[in-house]
Specification:
492 residues, Cytochrome p450, alpha+beta, three-stranded antiparallel β-sheet, six-stranded mixed β-sheet, 18 helices
């Protein structure tokens, strides 16, 4: 075959692909763009995809479609559409899109976060019930958290007056302990190998994890992509394996202390539930040994790093906005004084609560909620949405919508103070997402954030790092990690 003929063949194939691509696009989709044949819109996404999605609102509106590779994606950029999809049509939009970043070492998806259907429904119901039984969001859990906070404050005091330091690690050690107490009934010293390995795994995953890895959108090319990007692929695999091995050690240690029908912690409650089911069904497929391992991993992973990072952002914002920090401290001094805080105090500390709300809004830690999947052909407003469409709720866009907030670029807790001086939380403040896939650990996270933030403000004043300007830019990753990692503290 001569060069001309070969070139003609190539051109013909490309034309065929382009035509096939164009005519295979479903009809009556929301406005949007198919991008380039085969790769879709992926080449045009910035590292901070939520910003790209927000800019595209000006062109396509709040609800639009894109193609990422061959995957049809629905992007939701306003509260009304997110609420319509995730709450009012919650059953249809409750699926979970697969992601290569979160698949198991064996290539499958498991655990509470990345599954859907009956497996997910039963495990979520079980987890929510047991978290309530353990007092999550209630005063019964408060003494355990306050005890851990005392260890944390003591550790943090070692850095007073000693210049720049990174607060995130100590926060991670401390908050991991809160989850451990619920999961396996144990607390670990901050230098314990188990907790050290876990926090290092969090950090490494945030460093190398990607929101939209290419192999997610080109599953048939996954082996080739991982060869081309072998360094990252190997590092990601190793990180997930180290973390899962660590979880397995914790689960096995807890099993040794298990007595039939004991429900003192999550692992024991799971084993008890599994034993009950095995008595009536020897082929139990939902509550399995592997399910215990993966759900324990999800509880610890999701329940630690998000709260630790949010509190690290809080310290940074207080270091930057000294007047706001002083106002928070004055309110806490007046209402709580030097006694231990209680979660009930939040009703009497409206400015402190408003500051936490403004932190949630300004930080938008998970700027894009974990991708949803449409479970069956449906409609959203007047548009057709096919089954298996990936759905991306842009939380950052909602939290930075000038129509809702007026001046979203400013850090202003007063926006949450109502006419009577109380803290008013609008429905469109959605840091934990909404609907059936909203964060199961939200009650625990809210309690932790309040008690830790108040305790920090009672004991310390945060200051800008020496020789470094504070910036609220974030590192690219699964969540918004701080670029300005260091601060200074002084004792109060």
């Amino acid at each position: 075959m001569d060069v001309v003929s070969f070139g003609t063949w190539i051109i013909g194939i490309l034309i065929f692909i382009a035509f096939y691509w164009y005519f295979s696009i479903p009809k009556n989709l929301p406005p949007g763009s198919a991008g380039i044949p085969i790769v879709g819109y992926l080449p045009f996404l910035s590292i901070e995809a939520h910003l790209t999605f927000d800019k595209l609102r000006k062109k396509f509106g709040d609800v639009y479609h894109l193609y990422m590779g061959t995957q049809l994606v629905l992007v939701l950029n306003d509260y009304q559409s997110i609420n319509q999809a995730l709450v009012k049509q919650g059953d249809v939009f409750a699926g979970r899109s697969p992601s290569s970043e979160f698949e198991e070492v064996n290539g499958e998806h498991s655990g509470l976060i990345m599954t859907d259907g009956e497996y997910w429904k039963q495990h979520r119901r079980f987890i929510l019930r047991n978290l309530r039984d353990y007092g999550v969001g209630k005063l019964a859990l408060e003494p355990l958290i306050l005890n851990e906070i005392q260890h944390f404050i003591k550790e943090l005091s070692k850095h007073v007056g000693k210049g720049n330091f990174e607060i995130k690690d100590n926060l991670s050690y401390s908050l991991t302990n809160n989850i451990h107490i619920l999961v396996n009934g144990r607390r670990y010293d901050y230098d314990h190998p188990a907790i050290k390995k876990m926090v290092e795994s969090f950090k490494e995953f945030e460093r190398i994890g990607q929101v939209f890895p290419f192999e997610t959108f080109f599953p048939l090319l996954k082996p080739i992509i991982r060869i081309l990007d072998s360094k990252r692929a190997k590092a990601l695999w190793k990180t997930k394996k180290v973390f899962l091995d660590n979880i397995e050690d914790i689960v096995n240690e807890t099993k040794k202390r298990f007595v039939n029908d004991e429900n003192e912690n999550y692992v024991q409650a799971y084993l008890s539930e599994r034993n009950k089911r095995l008595q009536t069904n020897s082929n139990e497929q939902i509550f399995t040994e592997l399910g215990l391992l993966h759900n324990t991993r999800d509880l610890i992973g999701a329940g630690t790093d998000t709260s630790a990072t949010t509190l690290a952002w809080a310290a940074l914002y207080m270091a930057k906005f000294q007047k706001i920090q002083k106002k928070v401290q004055d309110e806490i001094d007046k209402v709580i004084g030097q006694r231990e805080p209680s979660y009930n105090d939040r009703n009497n500390t409206p400015y402190t609560e408003a500051t936490i709300c403004e932190l949630h809004r300004a930080v938008s830690l998970a700027p894009i909620a974990v991708p949803h999947r449409v479970m069956q052909d449906t409609t959203l407003y007047e548009y057709n949405i096919p089954k298996d469409t990936m759905v991306l709720p842009n939380i950052w866009a909602v939290h930075n919508d000038a129509k809702l907030w007026g001046d979203p670029e400013n850090f202003r807790p007063e926006r949450f103070i109502g006419p009577n001086g109380d803290c008013v939380k609008p429905e469109y403040l959605i840091p934990f997402s909404i609907g059936k896939r909203a964060c199961a650990g939200e009650p625990l996270a809210r309690m932790e954030l309040y008690l830790y933030f108040v305790s920090l403000m009672q004991n310390f004043t945060f200051l800008p790092p020496n020789g470094e300007e504070i910036t609220f830019d974030s590192q690219p990753g699964i969540t918004r990690q701080l670029k300005t990692k260091f601060i200074c503290i002084k004792a109060r």
